[in-house]
Description:
- This protein is mainly alpha-helical.
- The protein is built from two helices and no strands.
- It is flat and about 30 Å long.
Amino acid sequence: MCRHHIHCSAFRKKLREAVQLAAIPKRVKAHTYRHSFATELLLQGTDCRVC
């Protein structure tokens, strides 16, 4: 089985596009996205340490 890797900037570009489409005025980085995802998991009662 092969793994398909994408260039490190590909996620950043798509995230930037999504932020612009959503008209979010604040600065959003991939690390910010990671924290908000973890926060949502915790709010839903999921233990993010075992995901």
